[in-house]
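Page 47, continued from p. 46.
Same chain as before, 163 aa.
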Amino acid sequence: MRRLAAIVALVLMAGLPSVLHAVQPDEVMHDPAKEARARALSRELRCMVCQNQSIDDSEAPLARDLRLLVRERIAAGDSDRQVLDFLVARYGEFVLLKPPLKEHTLILWLLTPVVLIGGGAGLWLYNRKRWASRREDVTALTPEEEARLEKLIADQDSMEKSA
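Result:
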């Protein structure tokens, strides 16, 4: 019985993160299709307080107001594009979690790949120089050093045989 209760608890906890959203029961629309649209739009919009969290996940009062605004616009018959355009007109493109690729947002889209490629190239050059300097440090043994090494190895072998 305990084992069954533990399994049920684990199954419930595994599905819990997908259920944990900041949407309050009084915000939920009666029409499931409209509610699904509202949730999808809420995941695309940035919380102005939390900034890197969607309004669907944020518990900030402003995020709640934005969720209600999205639901009002959907209830009024606006399409998803019209809702997003309304919010962008009111709050700017910062409200979008994924800003569109435009001339003034180009740095947002290109900065990460440029930094990653530059960092990778820098590491590659650093390692290349490091290995090149190590190869230069390794030189061949002189005949005297080779003879001395052979003598040391032979002495070591004779000590091991006698022991």
